[in-house]
Amino acid sequence: MTNRSAPPSSVIPVLRYSDIVAVASWLKTAFGFRERLRVGGNHRIQMHASDGHIILHQAEVEPARSVSIMVRTDRIDELFANAVAHGAVALRDPQTHMYGERQCTLQDPFGQVWDFTQTIEDIDPSSWGGEAIELERIP
């Protein structure tokens, strides 16, 4: 069953910020995210993040530094340059890794850490030291 009031993703990170309107505006401009739904005026904002979703929750807390959010993109270098131009702090510039992903890490002006990943090649995990356990998606 689907419900238009809830994002369809299986896992939906909820990020707490003190000014979610400002954060949503910045995420749209810097990362290209799109608003999906506003709840309770400005109590919660649901956003499309590539083919996934996040929820911004109005709360008087600092973002957790022990968690980062990874978002898949097909334009990592463009996204990185745009985000930095709009005030993101580059924690790790885009790098291509032996496991077939090009990745970068950015911190938004509100303190949250974001990882972005772009698949550039399908690499057998055993070729770089990975151990495949269950690679197929289970419905």
Describe this structure in words.
There is one protein chain. The protein has 2 helices and 8 strands. It has a single domain (14-125), classed as 2,3-Dihydroxybiphenyl 1,2-Dioxygenase, domain 1. Strand 3 (44-49) and strand 4 form a beta hairpin. The chain is an alpha/beta fold and 139 residues long. The mean pLDDT is 89. The strands form 2 sheets. A 4-stranded mixed beta sheet has the order 1-4-3-2, with helices on one face. The protein has a 4-stranded mixed beta sheet with strand order 5-8-7-6, with helices on one face. The two termini are 14 Å apart. It is globular.
List keywords for this structure.
139 residues, alpha/beta, 4-stranded mixed sheet
Helix content estimate: 10-25%
The residue-averaged pLDDT reads: 89
Number of domains: 1
Give the structural class.
Answer: alpha/beta
CATH 2nd-level architecture: Roll
The counted number of beta strands is 8
CATH top-level class: Alpha Beta
CATH fold title: 2,3-Dihydroxybiphenyl 1,2-Dioxygenase, domain 1
What is the rounded distance between the termini? Answer: 14 Å
- Strand proportion, as a percent range, falls in 35-45%
> Which residue ranges are poorly predicted, with pLDDT under 50 across at least 5 consecutive positions?
none
* Whole-angstrom Rg: 16 Å
Strand order of the largest sheet: 1-4-3-2
- Cα shape: globular
Biggest β-sheet, characterized?
Answer: 4 strands, mixed
**Considering the protein shown, what is the CATH homologous superfamily?**
2,3-Dihydroxybiphenyl 1,2-Dioxygenase, domain 1
The helix-strand sequence is EHEEEEHEEE
Q: DSSP helix count?
A: 2
